[in-house]
């Protein structure tokens, strides 16, 4: 008996193609949507680092170039020298994915951030504080200060995003004792609930923070001093007003935390264990 599929192979193949083939080939719009979703966690910015990451994620160089050119031509992207930044109306910046070899529960970290009660006059004096993180991570990285600095920034950035690590004070006039671990047995600190209230702003207003800071920061210069003010305004408070000195419902250092995340994302140039570096797009704009 002849195989029915062999006798009808051309027709059968055509049926399979018509039924399923179009689903297997992504249209330009679908491919563009995937690329837009990918670039959102890279600051909605195309440049050497993000393009390399996109290729590593499986996107074709030609696809990337076509996508960028399309947005430049229709005015929904802005060229900033070596970078192209997508506009707010087509791309919302999402929190970056930050990988760290260490976490808040790592023994090496906890040994250097034991629970303490410094008998202070406020809740900021009790908890688990990492006070010399760069030195610790430099040691963990074999004495390499640049590698140690990068590892420390990655650790803090990832921890802030997860909520396991924070830099918290309700007032800009009260500097935190150090990076505070807020999970595990460290969660018994009296200010844990207050700290948690500000955490949702990290994700919900990250896009706003980056765009507002960029508007006030020229590339090649240090991050705008307004970053702290912007961080407070995101939470609904003007920290420059006298009555806000003890706004217990906010983290006056949210802007600092969001800045750490942008460092861990790699949105700085020339930053190392000994050099401050300067922001690059999307954190800044070039004049003209």
Supply database-style keywords.
disordered N terminus, single chain, signal, globular, four-stranded antiparallel sheet, alpha+beta
Descriptive notes:
The strands form 3 sheets. The chain has a 4-stranded antiparallel beta sheet. The protein has 2 domains: 4-86, no CATH class; 107-279, no CATH class. It has 288 residues and is of the alpha+beta class. It has helices at 4-7, 9-24, 28-40, 48-56, 61-73, 107-110, 133-140, 145-162, 192-198, 200-204, 206-215, 227-234, 254-264; strands at 45-46, 77-80, 83-86, 115-117, 126-130, 165-166, 179-181, 268-269, 278-279. Helix 7 (133-140) packs across helix 8 (145-162), helix 8 packs across helix 13 and helix 12 crosses helix 13 (254-264). A hairpin with a 2-residue loop joins strand 2 and strand 3 (83-86). The chain starts with a helix and ends in a 9-residue tail after the last strand. Residues 1-31 form the signal peptide.
Q: Topology of this protein?
A:
Elements: H1 4-7, H2 9-24, H3 28-40, E1 45-46, H4 48-56, H5 61-73, E2 77-80, E3 83-86, H6 107-110, E4 115-117, E5 126-130, H7 133-140, H8 145-162, E6 165-166, E7 179-181, H9 192-198, H10 200-204, H11 206-215, H12 227-234, H13 254-264, E8 268-269, E9 278-279
Antiparallel strand pairs: 1-3, 2-3, 4-5, 5-7, 6-7, 8-9
Helix pairs in contact: 7-8, 8-13, 11-12, 12-13
Provide a quick synopsis of the model.
By secondary structure, this protein is of the alpha+beta class. Helices cover 44% and strands 9% of the residues.
């Amino acid at each position: 008996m002849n195989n029915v599929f062999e006798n009808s192979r051309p027709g059968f193949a055509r049926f399979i193609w018509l039924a399923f083939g179009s689903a297997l080939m992504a249209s330009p719009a679908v491919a563009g949507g995937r690329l837009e979703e990918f670039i959102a966690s890279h600051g909605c910015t195309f440049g050497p680092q993000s393009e390399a990451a996109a290729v590593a994620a499986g996107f074709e160089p030609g696809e990337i170039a076509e996508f960028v050119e399309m947005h430049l031509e229709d005015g929904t992207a802005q060229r900033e020298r070596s970078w192209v930044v997508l506009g707010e109306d087509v791309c919302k910046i999402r929190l970056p994915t930050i990988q760290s070899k260490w976490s808040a529960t790592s023994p090496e970290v906890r040994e250097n951030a034991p629970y303490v009660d410094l008998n202070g006059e406020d809740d900021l004096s009790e908890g688990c504080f990492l006070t010399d993180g760069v030195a610790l991570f430099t040691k963990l990285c074999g004495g390499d200060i640049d590698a140690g600095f990068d590892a420390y920034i990655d650790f803090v950035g990832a921890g802030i995003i997860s909520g396991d690590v924070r830099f918290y004070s309700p007032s800009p006039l009260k500097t935190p004792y150090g990076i505070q671990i807020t999970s595990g047995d460290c969660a018994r600190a009296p200010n844990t609930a207050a700290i948690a209230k500000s955490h949702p702003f990290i994700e919900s207003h990250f896009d706003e923070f980056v765009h507002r800071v960029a508007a006030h920061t020229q590339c090649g210069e240090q991050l705008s001093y307004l970053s702290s003010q912007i961080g407070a305004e995101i939470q609904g408070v003007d920290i420059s007003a006298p009555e806000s000195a003890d706004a217990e419902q906010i983290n006056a250092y949210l802007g600092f935390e969001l800045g750490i995340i942008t460092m861990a994302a790699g949105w700085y140039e020339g930053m190392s264990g000994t050099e401050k570096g300067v922001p690059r797009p999307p954190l800044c704009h070039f004049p003209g």
